[in-house]
Amino acid sequence: MSMTITEKILAKSAGKESVAPGDLINANVDIMMCHDVTTPPAISMLSEKGIDGVFDADRIVVTPDHFQPAKDIKSAQLLKRLDSWAKRNKIKNYYPVGRAGVCHALLPEQGHIRPGEVIIGGDSHTCTYGAFGAFSTGVGSTDLAAALATGELWFKVPESMKFVLNGSLSTGVYSKDIIIAIITRIGTDGALYRAMEFVGSTIEEMSMEARMTITNMAIEAGGKSGIIAFDDTTKEYLDGRLKNDAPYDVFTSDEDANYLSVEEFDIASLEPMVAIPNLPSNGVTIGECAGEAMDQAYIGSCTNGRIEDLRIAAEFMKGKKVAIRTIVVPATPEIWKQANDEGLLNIFYEANCVVSAPTCGACLGGFMGILADNEKCVSTTNRNFVGRMGHPTSGVYLASPATAAASAIEGKLVDPRKYM
Amino acid sequence: MPIAHVYKRDHVNTDEIIPARYLNTDDTAELALHCMEDLDTKFMDKASAGDVIVCGDDFGCGSSREHAVWAIQGAKLGAVIAHSFARIFYRNCINCGFYPIELPNALELINDGDEVEVDYANGIINNKTQSKEISFKPLPDFALEIINDGGLLNHIAKKV
Fold first, then answer.
1. Chain B, window 73-132: residues with a beta carbon less than 8 angstroms from a chain A beta carbon
2. Under an 8 A CB cutoff, do A386 and B15 touch?
3. Which of A124, A273, A394, B67 holds its CA 20 to 30 A away from the CA of A61?
4. CATH classification of A5-243+259-265, choosing from 1.10.3300.10, 1.20.1250.20, 3.30.499.10, 3.40.50.300?
């Protein structure tokens, strides 16, 4: 029976020869990602059932990120619960404050994401890891608790949608612009319950970091997962990095696999995109929104807080001053160090930016850059819902690091190509 | 008598149901105080135990935060009726033993302030104000089992 890459991974995880969309399966979960907001409640739920141990500590990766370092007493209590549980269970893949980073940047960077595996995380952007040819999806605390205790979880096998991206990105256009264009075409529920499979020459030309920006936002189209097949670029990224260096399984979609739909995109003609408030599907070209005044720029998050993103932003800011308050958040300690070694932090300093410690921070309206009433922020993050970054009347404009950096310099939305 | 709070909106998201600024706690009673706050700041003043929320498509899109379901449960709401639900929220509801009611034309059948009663066993919403009975498609059996057991963890405990 012909299958998609997603179906093949799920079949393997359920110990079956084959699966088809709609099948209910019990999947063996290879990696469970735990952070400070959704894991403490999962720990408490299990504790109420008299369970404190975990099924397999080696399959768990723990990093506080949302409110770390603790932003207030309540979040400190959450961090404390997470910390003591991780220590009690001797979870060796625990990244405490100091080594903690934004989970979806940290896990791949630290070599926890392997092709062909099933990964869950108590966070909706867990779909990021699909960039490595894995099935990866976000779950709530109860699902997480069930998986922590049993090592498995039920899934309905999703239908797959294929997104064919062909052509080279033009100057000033990035993978963030692609995913905003995709979500704008299909809507925030355009891929509801489905696996989004990204293929084509554009993908083949992309770095792993750029690919992760695409799979990261699959959830913004309602997707259960986003996936990109393993290739030489994946191998190069993983070689020497994986914590578990046992051989991994590489799956590819059969040529005659079934897709619910196939969407084609001509990427060569794509322009820089901005998703205006209050939905990620409100994408417009930069030409349609240029000139809109901003109060803040935010460069960071699991979508665009990696070293490649910081390099792009620094290119624009070199030798310039920002016109609005600008917050740069390297997503992990390694990225922070790398940015420091490369002199990027100095560029940001000279440009009058704030550089913070790794944290999810203001992306979800937590801390470190909250917006006041009616303020507007151009941001490299993934969501622009009502009140996402602060006051319910504030607005978030989602864009690439290039567009965010160029806009920071002028204090209004600007076409980054002007500076290239 | 429970009443319907109707929001003619699609994509009511988890940031509106329970804003992230309140995620520094997982205390259900505390979360309930802020239920639906960024959709309607007056919601908790208007809503009483047993009341239902009625919305359009893609209710609960966004974050995986189960806090959204806990806020609704903490507010003791009787039901959420929507044209469709976002995947993680829908799954979280079932896992928490809370029945998400999918009704593709809910916004045509229920007006704000209507008195409604939900009969889960028979899959019927009784709109008393409009004197009509509305059937909804029941959840699949495996989901009903989880809900009837009081959520996923109880369900698993029972099987082991």
1. 84, 86-88, 91-92, 95-96
2. yes
3. B67
4. 3.30.499.10
